[in-house]
Every structure is written in C-alpha cells, then in structure tokens.
From TrEMBL:
Protein name per Swiss-Prot or TrEMBL: Histidine kinase N-terminal 7TM region domain-containing protein
Keyword Membrane carried by entry: yes
Organism, scientific name: Herpetosiphon gulosus
Record keywords, A-Z: Membrane, Transmembrane, Transmembrane helix
Regions crossing the membrane: 6-21, 28-46, 66-88, 100-121, 141-164, 176-199, 205-228, 240-260
Amino acid sequence: MVEAHLFGFGGALWLALFIATRTPQRSWLFWASITSLLGLMGFFGSGVLGGEGLNLEQLISLERSFWWSSVLPITAWLMVCSLIHQTLQPSIAKITKPERWLVGILGLILIGLGSFSNWLLNYAEPVLLASGSQIIGTGPAYPIYSAYVMGCVSAAIWHLVASWRIAETGMARRSLASLVLGALGFLIGTSSLLARLISMSTWPIFYGYVPIFAGLLITGFGLVRFGLLLQGQNVLRDLIYSFCEISILALIYLISVNILALLRPSQLALLLACVIISHTGLDRGRRWLDRLFFSRAEQEARSQSREFAIALASTPTPTPAPVIIDAKPDKAWNDAVRRAISGLKNPVQLAQNPLLSSALVSNIVQSKTLEDNRLNRSAIARELLLQAIEQLRPDASQALGSGDAWRWYNVLYLPYVREINRKTAIDWLRRGLSDPLIDASVLSWLADIDEDTFYKWQRRASDLIAAQLWEQQLKLLQAIVE
C-alpha cells in the first residue's frame, strides 16, 4: 500500500502546485481548494510514513500528529463546493456562509478530540490483529466522525448537483458533472475505509483507495476545467500535458531507485516531492536564474515568452463570435478594445482578448490564408489597433503636436505604443532628455494633464477606435449577408 499512498501524495502535491502557479487571483475558492489538497497530502504522507514498520509508540505519535489530515480535506472540500454554488447562485449565500462556519467549527472540534483524547481513536487500547501486529482502534465517539464525513460528502454532492442544474454553458455543466462523479468516488472510498476500520475487517485496504484516487483525479481535472479558480481560462490541455510530464518523470525516478532498493518509503516521498516541485515550479526557478545572466529588459522578455506559452496552452484558438449586426458597439466590445490597446506591449494579455474571436480578425486570417491560431490572431489584432491609432493622427507629419487636435492620438500613442506615460514625461523633462520625434512641448503637455482628465481622454479615444472597428466589422458582415 506504500505505492498507493505515494501516488495519492504526489497527485495532491502536483495538483496544488498546478493550481497555485496558474491562478492569478487568490480568491476564497482558491484557498479552500489548496487547503483541501494540502490536507490530502498530509493524509497520504502519513500513510507513507506508516509503511516503514513503526513500533506501537511511533505509530501512536504518527496517528496523533496527522489526525488533522483525516478531517481537514473533507471540510475544505465541502467549502469548495459551497463556494462554487454561491458563485453561480449568489442568493444562496445566506445558507452557505453559516454552513461553512458550522462545518469549520465542528471540524476543529473533531481535530482536537482525535489528536488529544481517546474519544475518536482509542490510543490507550491498541487492537491486536491475527498477524500479530497492532493497530489503533476506534473510540466510543468514532461514529460521530463517520457521520461528519458522510454529511460533508453528501452536502458537497448536493451543492455540485445544484450548481450543475443552474450552470448556463455546456462546458460548465460538463465540468460540474465530472466534479459530481469525483465526489461520488470520494463517498464510495471513504465509506469503504470507514466500514473497514469500524468492523476491523481484513479485506484489502486497496479497494477503498481506488475510488478515492479516481475521485481525486476526476475532481482535479473538473475543478481546473470549470475555470472558477483560473478566472475563465480553459487549461484542460495544459493540465493533461503537465500531468503526463510529471507522471513520466516520477515513474523514471521512482522505478530507478526502487529497483535498486536504495530508499525507504519516506525518502521515496521526499524524492517524489522534489521532482514535482522542481518541474512544476520550473518557470519560477528560471526567473531567478534570469536575474543572474540577463538584463532587466531581457528578463521581462523571457518571462513574457514563458507566460505567452502558458496562455497559448490554456486559451485554445478562439471560435468566431456569433454574427450580431447592430449599429452601435456594446459595452463588451468597447471593453475588449480598451484592454487590447492597453495590452499592445503585452503578448499574454493580447492573446487572451475576446477581440481575437471577432469576425473582423477571422476574415483577415482567411484572406491572408494564415494558419488559424492564437499567435496569428494576436498579430492581426495588434496590427488593426496600431492602424486605428494612426488614424487618430491629425496630420501626416512625423513630429508630434500638443494641441487639442492631437489629444486623442497622444493619449494612446505615447503610453501604449511609445511607452511614455505622465511619470516618464515628468522624469524626462526634469533630466533634460529628448526624443527626435517628440518635442519638449509634447512632454510638457503630457506632464501637465490632470490624471483623471488623462484617463477620461484615454477612454474616449479607445471608444472612438472601438466604433471604427465595429463599423468595419458591420460592413464585412453586411457584405457576407448580401
């Protein structure tokens, strides 16, 4: 059973690191998921340590020290399911918030009872098995713990089923269905293990762990695919790729050392942890090395290239948006154009912009007979935006002006194309720096603008570009319809 515990320990650790490295925002859902996975790491890790032939005193110390891992994962998992339900149906918060508080308090009480008393596990009277070995038996209050586990799993399944029923998109419903399936795996596995422990049965414990492992994998894939943790990113391909990579590496290392019988179970777990941490966190390690060998500009370029590769994996080629013929652009279109302009120098941000799925971009991809991928769509979107910004220029001269006629052009061209913002202008003026294409009067104009006014002008200018692009798309769609 050591191999099974190693598998569970490694799977929980890898999934926790994957979520941590791919999630840009730290929400309550994120922390609940990480807590649940850390609890599973403790649970399976204690099983690895228990496979080293400990004596009775060591076994009792191990059980007391890691009893929290028998309570925390299921408690945090219920909170995850509750938060998913609340995210899809905010009105349920009046029920879910008290529920999370109650479950958390009961979980802390059970952790305390199991760690410091004989009520849940009877440390004072070990059970002698037919094989001659001794195990820690259950205490008089153990049925309370069993009821708590079954209640948490049942409530989690209820939240997931309710979330599935109100989910609006097909992908969300499929992901929630996989979460329900994973929760059922946990229910079957935990029920089997609890029944085996209470009845002191001798049937193989492996039968209880199989559905738990299946539930862990299915739940992990479903949770990440659902996208709540990753703010809408579809990282299924990246998830499967990372899982296969880590699995191959772990098998190579573990099989190699296991054949030679060089390491104890705890040392194998440590080796597995090192493999998973080093390879899952490889990009962060590369950033540290970049600081030693590359300039700041080169560091940013290398970091962006790695982030762009992740973005390509987590955001597949966009499908064309539905054809909507409306005289004026809606708020979503204006917001997408505004974010795309601010991301002209950020390939990662631009690669995930909804503008890439527009009919305008799709038509250019087809007309230029380019391969339809996110990289080409990003390049086309950037070219469209640069052309639109140039159309705001009041005259054809290369030198910039500072009058009212230049207002819309300057507030977009200077910060997003030339990367010269108000602070940069103030610094240049103070240090006497200049640019062949930018007169000192333009820098003074930029430095003197009130910050609120500057942002209002930027919004107005981006809305003008959004209207221009929308008009181009309307003409294209009308031509297609005709």
